[in-house]
Amino acid sequence: MRILLVGAGGVGSAFVSIVARRDFFESIVVADYDRSRAEKAATGDDRFSAAQVDASSAESVTALCREHAITHVMNAVDPVFDMPVFEGAFAAGADYLDMAMSLSRPHPETPYEKTGVKLGDEQFAVAAEWEAAGRLALVGIGVEPGLSDVFARYAADHDFAEIDELGTRDGANLVVTDDDGNEIFAPSFSMWTTIEECLNPPVIWAVNESGQGEWHTTAPFSEPEVFDFPEGIGPVECVNVEHEEVLLMPRWVDCKRATFKYGLGDEFITILKVLHTLGLDRTEKVRVKGVEVSPRDVVAAVLPDPATVGPRMTGKTCAGLWVTGKGKDGQPRSTYYYHVVDNAWTMREYGHQCVVWQTAINPVIALELLARGTWNGTGVLGPEAFDAVPFLDLLTEYGSPWGRREMSA
């Protein structure tokens, strides 16, 4: 296996630190628009090399794949670049993995009722071409989407006879402080991506009165609920957010409803609403003193780099899936499958903050399963299309076990 890693930011660098401890691959080319950042991430192991790449150019990705005889492209850049990297991998004859999916576009007339272009639609539109070519595009294999999708497969195969709802619920008690110990606003993940998913209309899957499943949208931050997260995180208010799990799970797992809710907190929601009101969430460029800039790019640039906040961060992050329905015994069942990561542990063991580390470990595990032949397939597939047990076993082997908590049915 010869891997091209596109993106050497927080998640890409964490990916390198995790995969360096494994032996399932021959080589990895770490590529970034900023070659110096790629060189920094690729140090310390002669299986790694660095290169410059333009992720907005499919031709740039294809050329790099051909130069290094790449077999698998790992996309670790913002999802705005998904399609060029996806198309570049296909043109080069390589398999492809990403941790998100192609971007959505809200319905032009009723954005809070009907879906427009959904997350992943552009990729699923060419699934037949990938299948005919014998190539695999494994989409949505970060932590979210990714791990909760694996949990959905596990729940359907091993614990539930009927599933009412697949409810992804993510929360944390992370705190970032400045040099004087004062708590500051510093997102632990890409602000560009956070704005995209939090301000777009959230998507919900539900079976209608005629028994047919369909996707519809709602307003951002709708249907708030308090969810009690495990391992000391505690109660966090969660709200509807647009996310890929809802677009992936119903394709492979039978359910009556699929949702994604994220514990953002009042301060974060207020900031996002203000950004939207001021137009600072826009991606279209505006002219400022003779220079064209994207307002969202400016917001992302002035905030702390998520890759650098680890030393000033404390707390834990939790990704998980709340499944309700009937168990294999026919009785009502309510189970939360989860993965909690402590920032102190990831900083001590890997030198990366917990959110980017938790995101990066999942594609490493997926690549190892593909290298072993344990997972295989063609076309455009989500994590739900594969056996969950080998994945969860490897997650534990990597030193970061998952958990399961029975809830009141």
Map the helices and strands.
Elements: E1 2-6, H1 10-19, E2 27-32, H2 35-41, E3 48-52, H3 58-67, E4 72-75, H4 82-91, E5 95-98, H5 121-124, H6 127-132, E6 136-138, H7 147-159, E7 160-172, E8 175-176, H8 191-199, E9 203-207, E10 213-217, E11 225-229, E12 234-240, H9 245-252, E13 257-262, H10 266-277, E14 286-288, E15 291-293, H11 295-302, E16 313-314, E17 316-327, E18 332-342, H12 343-350, H13 354-372, E19 379-381, H14 388-397, E20 403-406
Parallel strand pairs: 1-2, 1-4, 2-3, 4-5, 5-6, 6-19, 7-13
Antiparallel strand pairs: 7-17, 8-16, 9-10, 9-13, 11-12, 12-13, 14-15, 17-18, 18-20
Helix pairs in contact: 1-13, 3-4, 7-9, 7-14, 13-14
Structure overview:
The chain has 409 residues and is an alpha/beta fold. The chain has 2 domains: 97 residues, Rossmann fold (3-Layer(aba) Sandwich), CATH 3.40.50; 211 residues, 2-Layer Sandwich (Dihydrodipicolinate Reductase, domain 2), CATH 3.30.360.10. Helix content is 33%, strand content 26%. The protein is built from 14 helices and 20 strands. The strands form 4 sheets. Strands 7, 9, 10, 11, 12, 13, 17, 18 and 20 form a 9-stranded mixed sheet that branches. It has a 7-stranded parallel sheet with strand order 3-2-1-4-5-6-19, with helices on both faces. A hairpin with a 4-residue loop joins strand 17 and strand 18. Helix 7 packs parallel to helix 9 and helix 7 crosses helix 14. The longest helix is centred in the last third of the chain and has 19 residues. The radius of gyration is 20 Å and the shape is globular. The model has no long low-confidence stretch (mean pLDDT 93).
